[in-house]
Amino acid sequence: MGNCAQGCKDYWCRPKNTNVRISLPAVCVVWQTAMIILFGVFIRYDEESDTHWVETKEHENITSDIENDFYFRYPSFQDVHVMIFVGFGFLMTFLKRYSFGGVGFNFLIASFGLQWALVMQGWFHALDHSTGKIYIGVESLINADFCVAGCLIAYGALLGKVSPVQLMVVTLFGITLFAVEEYIILSLLHCRDAGGSMVIHTFGGYYGLAISWVLYRPNLHQSKRLNGSVYHSDVFAMIGTLFLWMFWPSFNSAITDHGDGQHRAAINTYLGLASTVLTTYAISSLSAKRGKLDMVHIQNATLAGGVAMGTAAEFMIQPYGALIVGFCCGILSTLGYLVFTPFMEKVLKIQDTCGIHNLHAMPGVIGGFVGAIVAAAATEDVYGHEGLINTFDFEGAFANRTVGTQGGFQAAGTCVAIAFGIVGGAIVGVILRFPIWGDPADDNCYDDEVYWEVPEDEESLPPILEYNNHMISHSKNPEMSESNFSVEQS
């Protein structure tokens, strides 16, 4: 018995091996091959992207190609796509020695995730049971990017502490869980969540936090020297913030109904984001003895209003209501970085690298319940009879649903997202604890050199040598060039 216990201890506590030369290529090639097979079996173009579009136009009396959904949705798709690959990617480059990992692994898991999302979401939402095929168009691409966003949010909590193979596993299970919880919330409960406060941000936030809790590293302080930013890394991260901030109105309005719903969602998100910026700056300044701003707050908390407006974006919350939501989220998100992040690490044993609780999880929950309240308070005087039916899709099996009942289901949807995130994340965390994934040791986290070929820093050259090399390469006077070089040698 003692030998068995010792064997288990030796297995689980053996030294970390970060060599992913076999495992990473194997996972990438095998899983991409699986995607090719699945796409070959299931995925086809929908009627608006198929060559039979010409016949569809004639059959439905469509007079112009401009009515193809591509021309309505593609501008929003472009914005969302930039947010996924540039916004999220650069937002994660704030660590002084983990910029390659931040933007590079973001690129990897998003590219895999969007393919798996098209399959998983297709099985739940777009499967034609008569043909057994999934038909995709531009709206499918937007939804796939939304699905990937949940996994990228989870990555924020794990940044610098996991291997690329582990991230692929996180994405595989994350996309699967997302598709299921999205189907339950949007189809079975019939919730409205255009910008994903519930299905994207709440789920993704708690999914990442639960994984981080299971993967808690008691000796992570050994890498404390690298768990921080430098001047240029914060500037790069701020680029990500600005891309996300500018395009968030497109994110929240991308899949809403054409016309007033999409228009209203963009306006509400625009205002919520603007309001959040001012309160974030205010609390950040108030929290410092000399009123200096903290770049961590500015990079992250300024986006919380966009997260919180996701559910209610298409509702008649009114412009001042959007400003109030943004105002409150800027305060709460910034306080989260000041108070709750240290509390989570010290008491709850959750190491949240990017602070996704304050940017995604908490604002997502706020957004879900704001949506529930606004839905329950909806009246025909404000929406109009047809507007109420159109906004909440009170048709078919849901034709007799009241706004009060809708508000209750909206709140229930938020709870479902939390449950899926926590339970699913805990299970995935247990899987990732197996010592086979090539994750770094506690004293080797937050460092690109573990998984990347990192060029030598220019700063390692003596400043005078840099100057002299520059002079040598540009000088037309050989004697002057030689004298400059000799100065360095003396």
Please, could you describe this protein's structure?
By secondary structure, this protein is mostly helical. Helix content is 68%, strand content 2%. It is built from 19 helices and 3 strands. It has helices spanning 2-12, 23-42, 53-59, 69-91, 99-126, 138-158, 164-188, 197-214, 231-253, 260-286, 295-300, 304-308, 319-348, 356-376, 380-383, 385-392, 403-432, 463-474, 478-489, and strands spanning 43-45, 127-128, 133-136. The chain has a 3-stranded mixed sheet. A hairpin with a 4-residue loop joins strand 2 (127-128) and strand 3. Helix 5 packs across helix 6 (138-158), helix 9 runs antiparallel to helix 10 and helix 14 (356-376) runs antiparallel to helix 17 (403-432). The longest helix is centred in the C-terminal third of the chain and has 30 residues, at 319-348. It is globular and about 70 Å long.
Brief write-up:
By secondary structure, this protein is mainly α.
Features:
single chain, 490 residues, mainly alpha, 3-stranded mixed β-sheet, 2% strand, globular, disordered C terminus
Name the structural class: mainly alpha
Low-confidence stretches: 464-490
Rg of Cα set? 25 Å
Whole-number average pLDDT? 91
Question: Which descriptor suits the 3D outline?
Answer: globular
What is the quaternary state of this protein? single chain
Largest sheet: 3 strands, mixed
Strand proportion: under 5%
Q: What is the number of beta strands?
A: 3
Helicity, as a percent range: 55-70%
Terminal residue distance:
70 Å
Q: In order across it, which strands form the biggest sheet?
A: 1-3-2
**Order of SSEs:** HHEHHHEEHHHHHHHHHHHHHH
Q: Count helical runs.
A: 19
